[in-house]
Specification:
Helix content is about 25%, strand content about 35%. By secondary structure, it is of the alpha+beta class. It has a 6-stranded mixed beta sheet with strand order 6-7-8-3-9-10, sandwiched between helices. A 6-stranded antiparallel beta sheet has the order 13-12-11-14-20-21. Strands 15-19-16-17-18 form a 5-stranded antiparallel beta sheet, with no helix packed on it.
Length: about 375
């Protein structure tokens, strides 16, 4: 296995479209890195540049300390797992997994050893003589993964490998991927637009949008300390509530105005707002769904931090409830335990935890202050 370096890597297509801009990352040997972001953000193009399937326009890529910009794909010692499995329909599972090794002209006994090793790792041994058409989607995906890891590449590249699977199979295969990575200690670059998948798999996540890196961090860092509005809204399920408020001076503190409602911020959050001249200006406020209190739990909360709202929709997910409600025509979603609130149509007292607010500049989208 090996580490990976990408230094100021860019990709501009012949029509002038800049798909990837100034991509910089240092990946340690054995890390599981997830490139995450919406469709068209440049994550798959980045993966293809690492593989050598796309030429880079600028910058350099190093694998194991060796520059690979001009190397052909076959010489980079990487393996790629595609979204559509890309299995040969007229070959057995064994033959599919052996194909890449045979292309490298390895001895048959070595090919057999590596294929059976990968099959054991992925629980595919009973299926080695089967044809792909007889397999489930999850089994086909495991064959594609087995074909890749049988080569024992320096870097394993995976382009949305679970996106075509049913949700139950997807969760199961996610667990399998974590187990395999832990056992192999391989360097993995994984692409997905599913933030739940990214949070579950990545040692670190690279959040991308419009061809740019917006933030790199562990799942916890991205969730607790997003550096901009895009990352705050992308990471988390349900998404962070984001809404416009006006900053007002309230003595030594700042207050946030949403229509006729006012919420006074703690002093430590007020200071950056007031010192940077946001008083009288509109900013974007964010709050996670779990950072609301309801009904009797609001007792002791500041009066200007509570508002009466009508529950519109209630969704039960296991022992959790997602409540949807509006305040001054702004929609919110809250996460709470069953039995803590009312039912659709009921009016309840809602208290956001002001100490858990995230505040963003509306022009730059950079964070101003958070808890």
């Amino acid at each position: 296995m090996a580490g990976l370096s990408m230094r100021r890597v860019g990709k501009v297509f012949s029509n002038g479209f800049a798909a990837v801009k100034e991509f910089n990352i240092e990946v340690e040997d054995g890390e599981f890195i997830v490139l995450a972001g919406p469709s068209g953000c440049g994550k798959s193009t980045t993966l293809r540049m690492i593989a050598g399937l796309e030429d880079i326009t600028s910058g350099e890529i190093l694998i194991g300390g060796n520059r690979v910009n001009e190397m052909e794909t076959k010489d980079r010692d990487v393996a790629m797992v595609f979204q559509n499995y890309a299995l040969y329909p007229d070959m057995t599972v064994y033959e599919n997994m052996a194909f890449g090794l045979r292309m490298r002209k390895l001895p048959e006994d070595e090919i057999d050893r590596e294929v059976r090793w990968a099959a054991r790792l992925l629980n595919l041994e009973p299926l080695l003589d089967s044809m792909p058409r007889t397999l489930t989607g999850g089994q086909r995906q495991n064959v594609a993964i087995g074909r890749a890891i049988a080569r024992r590449p320096k870097v394993l590249l995976m382009d949305e490998p679970l996106s075509n699977l049913a949700e139950e199979i997807k969760v199961q295969n996610r667990r399998e991927l974590k187990r395999i990575h832990k056992e192999l200690k391989s360097t993995v670059i994984y692409v997905t637009q599913d933030q739940t998948e990214a949070m579950a798999l990545g040692n670190r996540i690279v959040v991308m949008n419009d061809g740019e890196i917006r933030q790199i961090g562990t799942p916890e860092e991205l969730y607790q300390n997003p550096c901009n509005k895009f990352v705050a809204g992308f990471i988390g399920s349900p998404q962070m509530n984001l809404f416009d408020v006006v900053v007002e001076q309230a003595g030594d503190c700042a207050a946030l105005a949403l229509g006729e409602h006012r919420i006074t911020l703690p002093k430590e959050q007020s200071v950056p707002l007031l010192e940077d001249g946001y008083a009288g200006k509109t900013v974007v406020c964010g709050i996670r769904p779990e950072d609301f209190r309801f009904g009797k739990d609001c007792e002791g909360a500041a009066k200007d931090g509570c508002v009466e709202a009508m529950i519109q929709v209630q969704e039960a997910v296991g022992d959790e409830l997602f409540l949807y409600f509006q305040v001054d025509k702004v929609g919110f979603v809250a996460r709470c335990k069953e039995g803590e609130t009312g039912h659709p149509g009921d009016k309840v007292l809602v208290c956001p935890d002001a100490s858990r607010f995230y505040l963003f500049d509306p022009a730059t989208e950079r964070i101003i202050t958070n808890q």
